Every structure is written in C-alpha cells, then in structure tokens.
Amino acid sequence: MSSPLTSRWLPVTERTLWRKRRRLTAGLCATAWLSGCGVLISNDEFGLSWSGKPLAQLTQAWGQPAAQDLQADGSSEVRYDLKEARCTYWFTADKAGKIVAYRYEVGQWGSCKPV
Which long-range contacts (C-beta less than 8 Å, at least 24 apart) are formed by 88-95? Predict the structure, then answer.
C-alpha cells in the first residue's frame, strides 16, 4: 500500500514536466514569430516580389538608389547597395516604369534577405 505522500508527489512531478514542455514549446513558437520568418525567404524570392511593380513604388519603399542608368532601349536600371547585408540589387524597369527584371550579388558573409 502506498502512502498518500508518495502518490501525491508523482502527479506533481508529471505536472511540472508538462508545464516545462509547454513553456519550451511556447518559447520556441515566440522565437519563430519574432524572427519574422526571414530565414524562410530566399534571396531570389525577395527580388522576385518586386517584379511587375512600378519602379516608383520601389523607390518610395527603399529610398533613392545608389545609381540609376538609362539604357539605349528606353528602360532604366537602378542599383541599391544594402551595406548592412553586404548585398547589391539591380532592378530593371521598362519604358512604362514597371520592374521587369532584377539580379543581386551577395558579398562575403552577406545575405540579400530583408533586414
């Protein structure tokens, strides 16, 4: 026959373990949420998200580009240097100002993901 004290301690221990597991799970979920899921976005998807949008919208969101070149066919190419990320993006817009292409270059230890 077990004493009331012994049977009482076992559920408390299980309850404590259950609480710790819930706190750990909640902590992991909060960490993933606070990270903004930036690790799930590839360099390519970030540039691709601007395809088809007006160049003016990109300039409004990112500010003035580091360089802007007018091409012979009337299109324009803008360059953004993301110094913190050690990344350079080039966006090409057609005559109407719609982004039709992009490319990027990642420096050493850099990332072209949004910061």
Answer: 89/47, 91/47, 91/50, 91/55, 91/58, 93/54, 93/55
Tokens of 72: 């012979």
Residues in the chain, pLDDT under 50? 33-40, 115
Give pLDDT tens digits for 37-56: 444 455 667 778 899 999 99
> What CA–CA distances, in Å, run from 105 to 4, 21, 87?
69, 43, 6
- The parent domain of residue 7 ranges over 1-34
Q: Is 72 helix (H, G, I), strand (E, B) or coil?
A: coil
Contact assessment for residue 73 and residue 90, using Cβ atoms and an 8 Å cutoff: no
Q: Are residues 24 and 46 in the same domain?
A: no
pTM over 0.70: no
